[in-house]
Structures are given as C-alpha cells and as structure tokens.
C-alpha cells in the first residue's frame, strides 16, 4: 500500500499577551501635607462630571461568581415550596429610610452645593411662600445683627390662633365675605359655627382683588365654582378614559363617532374575582401594609355607530335645546325593537385595562371644570330629574365642576397572539371571548326610571339641599 506524501503546512501562531507592571506599595505610612489650593481648583472634584469620568476610566475590580456576590438559599423560607413567594418579595409599602441613609440618596448635582436653609419639602408648598420664608429668615438674621441688645424682644405668639376652632372660623369668614347674605350670626351649635368678623379692608379686597405679587395685573373676569347638579350620575362622578393609540379607523380627521362611543365592561372571570376579593380582604385586615385595590381591572368591548348619520341623530336626542329631541323619527330602525326603533352600534375591538388610578375614596381630589357664560337675553333649557326637558331657565354664570372618580388607560387586548404562543390560559380566554363576543348593539334612549331618579336625588341632597340652584340671573 502506497503511502501519501507528507504535506507541510506553514501557519503563523499569533498570541496576544499583556504584562502588568504594578508598583509595589510604599514602604512607609503615607504622610498628609497641607497644601494651599484655591477654592476654584477644589470645586471640580465635587462636580458630577469628575465622578462620571473617574467611573469610566477606572472599571470596577469585582469578580462576579455564580450567585453574583449574593448567595441565595431558599431552604428555610416559609412557604416557598408551597407556591407562596411572599417571604422573598419586597413589601408593598417600603419601610421608612433611616436619616443616616437619606444623606446617601442625595443626587450627584447636590454635592458641593450649600444646604438649603428652608426646612421641610418645598415642592409641597407654593414657591412664592418658600421664597418669602427664605427672604424673611435672611432679613431677620441681618436685623438681629444690627439691632441693639435692648431692642431684641420677641413678639408674643398668639397660641389661640392655631386652635382648630379658630382655624375653622377663619375659613368660614372667607365664605361669609363671598356670600354676605348667607352669613350665620346665631350662636354656635353642632351644625352651625359663626365665622370671625371681617374687617373693612378684607371686604374691600374681595370687591377689588389684586394679585399678591404683581399689582400691575388686572382681573378681567371671575367665576364662582359650583357643582353641576343636573349632570350628576348614579356614581356621582365620571371616569376619564384614554386609549393607547387611535381607536377609530379614521386617520385623516377627527371621527365624530367618538363623541357617542360605547364601552361595555366584560364580567370578571372566577379567578379574577377571587384575586380581587383577596386583595380587598387583605386591605380591610391591614390597610397600612396593603393599599386599597380600587376598581377591578375590567376588559371592555368598544362600539361605534355604524354611520355618521346615526351620530348626528344621537346628538340631537341628547341636545336639550333641540325642540324635536323626543321625535321617534330620529331612530334608525335597524334593531329588533320595532316599537321604538334603535341605533345600530358595531363592535370595533376588545380592550384591556393597562393603567388605572382610583380616586373614589377622595371624591373631589380631581375634578373637571367647565366655564359657562350665559348668552345675554337667552335662556338655557335644563333637564328635569327624570331626564325630560324642562322650561327655559337661565343658568347661573359659574365654573361647574365634575368629580373624577377613576382614570383608565385602555390598550388593545392581544389574547390571540398569546394563544398562538401556546399559552393555555390565554387560549382558553381567547376562545371564550370569541364565543361570547357581541357583534352589534341596538341602542334605545329612554328616560330615567324611579331607582335612577332616587339615586341622583340623594346625591343632589348631599351637595345642595336646595334643588332650585341656577334659577335667576
């Protein structure tokens, strides 16, 4: 057997090697010398730019092991092998920061800067008040340095002004100045308390208001802030809804169908109801560590009118100034209700709750304002408690507020994509959504029933017992 000739292949062997020349430590202890350096040269070491450059030039000499420097041993954690991970999760409400650790949380830009003389948190107060306190403190400090020793006398503090009853009387005095006809002048009772007597200067300041810091500004107009008693809902307030993206297929202009769109909440599943009830029970048992869950995170079906013509007719039926708003001819007879007719709504898509904030516990924490100026010589038809149009009544010029009980951001639900990835739960929910999907709605507009009228009347009584608000000029 003939052997093959040996082939010689030449190949370069390249090796990259680094040599370290680390200087040995000094033989003696370091000696600190006092060197006179100007302040400007030292300021650069306190700036964040110096620390950022130093961090980029000097990499961290840390060897990361398999546990990244933090060995984790799950043995001994209560309930960890039973599916309860509460022992390794951070608390919902973090513990208060120690005063010594709070100094370490200062931003880099605050290093080397003088500490503010104003104590407390300035962002919770108006800036002009903070500036006035700062200027007053400096003026008092300068005055105390120049004043003779005999004139340094502190003014006695009137502790009675800080009592709750006097604070309440001062607040009532402001309402008495604004509404002198409603001033209570009788003895103090459980429900009525007299306010402090207003001075002539305070009454004149209310009649001729001036800006506290810029007297050149002139007041052009003012509005009393009142509740809109005729717009109270069954839940007292309103929900602000924001879509993540354009919910309509119209992109070149504003879709007027959005003014009368419908959101139909889908009933929670058994698992979601159990989860929500567990959070509610935990909050009732320990409200300090478990915050209120708020409203449930519903999924919504989004509906729009089938045509723009239907949108115009719906707006006419809700317009209290339209004389033929109760005309049955406005209905487009596409629904099953043949006696009254109906408006057809088509299902656009399914939305889920992305973010939600609940303010129902603090009813007037967020409100929406609407400025109303009545046209001279004209009235405005106001709806009665049963929803029907009433006589032409002049509505009072005011800034009407509407409580916001919840703010929700909706995003399209992606259940089909999750089902395609093999998620069994998402596939089951997607199949259920398709089976229970409502393709279209037939809307019929009616007057309020007795239960709805009673609910709104009770809410009106809480705001104002006199339901004749708005009558008169």
Measured between the Cα atoms of the first and last residue, the distance is 123 Å
Mean pLDDT figure: 75
Structural category: alpha+beta
The share of residues in helices is: 25-40%
Question: What is the overall shape?
Answer: extended
Number of DSSP helices? 11
Question: What is the N-to-C order of secondary-structure elements (H for helix, E for strand)?
Answer: HHHHHHEEEHEHEEEEEHHEH
User: How many strands, what sense, and barrel or not for the largest sheet?
Assistant: 8 strands, mixed
Compute the gyration radius: what is it? 36 Å
Task: Characterise the protein shown here.
The chain contains 11 helices and 10 strands. Helices cover 26% and strands 15% of the residues. The chain has helices at residues 39-43, 48-57, 99-102, 127-146, 164-178, 200-207, 270-285, 308-318, 415-420, 424-435, 450-463; strands at 225-227, 238-243, 262-265, 299-305, 343-358, 367-372, 380-383, 389-393, 398-412, 440-443. With 473 residues, it is of the alpha+beta class. The protein starts with 38 loop residues before the first helix and ends in a 10-residue tail after the last helix.
């Amino acid at each position: 057997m003939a052997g093959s000739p040996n082939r010689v292949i030449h190949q370069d062997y390249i090796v990259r090697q680094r040599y370290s020349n680390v200087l040995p430590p000094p033989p003696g202890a370091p000696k600190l010398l006092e060197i006179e350096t100007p302040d400007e040269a030292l300021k650069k070491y306190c700036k964040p730019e110096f620390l950022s450059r130093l961090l980029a030039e000097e990499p961290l000499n840390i060897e990361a092991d398999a546990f990244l420097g933090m060995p984790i041993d799950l043995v001994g954690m209560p309930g960890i092998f039973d599916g309860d991970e509460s022992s390794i999760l951070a608390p919902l409400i973090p513990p208060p920061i120690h005063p010594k650790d709070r100094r370490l949380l200062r931003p880099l830009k605050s290093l080397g800067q003088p500490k503010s003389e104003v104590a407390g948190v300035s962002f919770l107060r108006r800036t002009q008040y903070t500036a006035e306190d700062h200027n007053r403190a400096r003026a008092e400090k300068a005055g105390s340095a120049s004043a003779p020793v005999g004139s340094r006398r502190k003014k006695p503090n009137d502790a009675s002004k800080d009592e709750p009853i006097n604070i309440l009387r001062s607040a009532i005095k402001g309402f008495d100045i604004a509404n002198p006809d409603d001033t209570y002048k009788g003895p103090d009772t459980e429900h009525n308390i007299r306010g402090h007597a207003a001075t002539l200067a305070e009454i004149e300041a209310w009649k001729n208001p001036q800006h506290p810091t810029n007297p050149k500004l002139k007041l052009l107009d003012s509005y009393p802030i009142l509740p809109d008693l005729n717009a109270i809902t069954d839940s007292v307030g309103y929900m602000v809804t924001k879509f993540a993206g354009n919910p309509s297929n119209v992109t070149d202009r504003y879709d007027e169908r959005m003014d009368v769109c419908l959101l139909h909440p889908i009933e929670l599943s058994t698992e979601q109801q159990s989860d929500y009830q567990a959070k509610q029970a935990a909050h009732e048992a320990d409200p300090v560590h478990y915050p209120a869950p708020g409203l449930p995170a519903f999924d919504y079906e989004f509906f729009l009118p089938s045509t723009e013509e239907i949108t115009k007719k719906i707006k006419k039926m809700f317009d209290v100034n339209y004389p033929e708003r109760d005309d049955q001819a406005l209905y487009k007879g596409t629904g099953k209700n043949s006696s009254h007719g109906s408006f057809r709504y088509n299902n656009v898509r399914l939305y889920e709750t992305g973010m939600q904030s609940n303010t129902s516990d603090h009813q007037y924490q967020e409100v929406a304002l609407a400025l109303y100026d009545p046209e001279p010589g004209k009235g405005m038809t106001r709806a009665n408690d049963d929803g029907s149009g009433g006589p032409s009544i002049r509505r009072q010029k005011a800034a009407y507020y509407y409580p916001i009980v919840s703010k929700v951001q909706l995003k399209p639900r992606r259940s089909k994509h999750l089902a395609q990835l093999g998620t069994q739960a998402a596939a089951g929910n997607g199949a259920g959504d398709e089976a229970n999907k409502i393709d279209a709605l037939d809307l019929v507009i009616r007057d309020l029933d007795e239960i709805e009228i009673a609910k709104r009347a009770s809410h009106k009584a809480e705001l104002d017992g006199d339901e004749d608000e708005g009558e008169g000029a």
